[in-house]
Amino acid sequence: MTLLVIFVVLVFAYSLISGVVERGRLTAPIIFTFAGAMSQLLVNYEAPERFSADVFLTIAELGLVLLLFTDGSRIVYAFRGVLLSVPGRLLSTGMLLTIVFGLLAALLLFDKITVWEAGILAAVLAPTDAGLGQPIVSNPKVPQRIREGLNVEAGLNDGLAVPFLLFFMAMASQTDEANFSRFFVEQFGYGVLIGLFVGRVGSELFAAAINRGWLAREYRQLGFAALPIMCMLISHETGASMFIAAFVGGLAVRRQRPVGISGESVKFIEDWGQLINLAVFFLFGAIVAISWPHLHWAHFAYAALSLTVVRMVPVAIAMAGLGFAPNTLVFMGWFGPRGLASIVLGLVYIGHGNSTELVRMCIVATVLSSILLHGLTARRGAEFYAAKVEKLPPDAAEKAPASLERT
To answer: Structural domain of residue 150, as residue ranges?
Structure first.
């Protein structure tokens, strides 16, 4: 209860100075992670108290479910030649190579890690978090094509990482082929079906109620927010992946207007999702405080590889042939921060049982390093890169218009 009180007070205090903070180098994730760590140390000193892992996992899962659902519901695909290749390449070649490089890095660095555990670690740390690089995706000086590519990548790769994580977890824990097939069908297959049903049927009923004038305006946002929560609860009861269900549910939402889902409804979920995300970073800080005595140089060595070579080389390979300048490749490669999705997927792995301290500590070290390094360099890095882009010729690849529209 003490941690909850501290968190609520912190949210209020942060809201009072949020504008000032956003103009500086610190970010909300940095502040809430640090506050969570300090709060845990303080609570342990005054009165031994441990937050419930189950409560932490539920809060974190809800945050990712809301994020995945809104990301899916806001994406509209418009294929316009090769311009779509920026997000497309990041989500295909880039992400696959990131997982492969992450797996190989773990095998090379650690003697006592199995192939499947290395795969789990790589899959957990593959998704990026646009929230940690908000000064980049919101900076109009950064070319739209680059901003959009990084933003779309971060919006979709968390959902795409889930099947890989489920596969590696199943291979690490299941030796029977029948059990593995059942596990994968329940997690992936049921998740897709639940998402399709809840997203499509729910949004159709929502639109029909609006057409008939049955739905009061003040309940539009609340009613729409119930859809991702339904995905989460039904998935929990059936053994399906709530993350796959939420993402597919968002994609299945009816978008036709004026009878479809409005931007206000999506914004309502995002606002509440932001509060939950701050809670996740706060509680992650508490995890850092508890884990700190167990963190060693090798864990941070893997974190360094994960944030540089494991991310940058795949991005450079994925962008080959598009004509981007070296500065652009370095910029896109560096700003692939690990945040909310990695925290939640890591907790899913831990909650599934049979987790190892090595994998847990590598996840903590990598996410912590990303929160600090990407948070502190985002604003300055965006300004530095924007100055470099201004010197490029008008027909430079970076200055081509973005091709993926979002509603």
So the answer is: 2-399
107/102 Cα distance (integer angstroms): 9
132-171 burial code (b ≥16 CB/10 A, e <16): bbbbbbebeebbebbbbbbbbbbbbbbbbbbbbbbbbbbb
Q: What ranges make up the beta strands (E) of 103-233?
A: none
Tell me the C-alpha distance between 349 and 356, whole Å. 10
Residue 290 has pLDDT above 60, yes or no: yes
Q: Look up residue 7 and give its two tokens.
A: 């968190």
Q: Are 228 and 246 in contact (CB under 8 A)?
A: yes
Q: Which CATH number fits the domain that encloses residue 223?
A: 1.20.1530.10
Burial class (CB in 10 A: 0-12, 13-18, 19+), 125: buried
The widest CA-to-CA distance across the chain, in whole angstroms, is: 64
pLDDT in tens, 258-282: 444 555 555 666 666 678 888 889 9
The whole-number pLDDT of residue 46 equals 44
Does residue 405 belong to any structural domain of this protein? no
CA distance linking residue 318 with residue 311, whole number of Å:
11
Classify residue 57: in a domain, yes or no.
Answer: yes
Residue range 66-83: average pLDDT? 60
d(CA 108, CA 390): 41
DSSP bridge partners of 61: none
Distance, in Å, from the CA atom of 333 to the CA atom of 338, rounded to the nearest integer, reads: 12
| Type of residue numbered 327 | N
Which of 70-74, 123-127, 318-322, 341-345 has the weakest average pLDDT?
Answer: 70-74
Q: Supply the Cα-derived Rg of the chain in whole angstroms.
A: 21
Q: How many domains does the chain have?
A: 1
